[in-house]
Amino acid sequence: MVGILYSIVRTIATFTWNFCDILIILVSIGIAERYKHLNEVVRYKILNNLTERIHWQKIKNKYVIMNDLIEEADNFVSPLILLSCFMNVYQICVKISEGIRYYHHNNYIFLKLLQMHD
């Protein structure tokens, strides 16, 4: 019964871990792409000598809005990043524990086989 409960909790933790990582990645990529697009618009107009058609006030307003978005995303994503780090440490500890148990189990069997052979 305890093994089944442990397996269920571990499966839920793994799904949560993956979901958090994917959400962090998607939010980061989305914000980075917004900044990239704004920079490309300005770069295009400057390279094509369209500087008189650049509405600097509009660009500044978009930039300010994007900075506000960054603050909101930071407030949302920061706890997820912390949770993700804790979940990564947990997964590492579980894998190390499984590896140590596997090693000791196989080493024990190997020693018993050697004792039987002698």
TrEMBL record:
GO terms for molecular function: sweet taste receptor activity. This is Gustatory receptor. It comes from the Eukaryota. It is a multi-pass membrane protein. Belongs to the insect chemoreceptor superfamily. Gustatory receptor (GR) family. Gr5a subfamily. Its main location: membrane. The keyword Plastid does not apply. The chain crosses the membrane at residues 12-32. It holds the Pfam family Trehalose_recp. It is found in: Cell membrane. GO terms for cellular component: plasma membrane. Keywords: Cell membrane, Membrane, Receptor, Transmembrane, Transmembrane helix. It comes from Aphidius gifuensis.
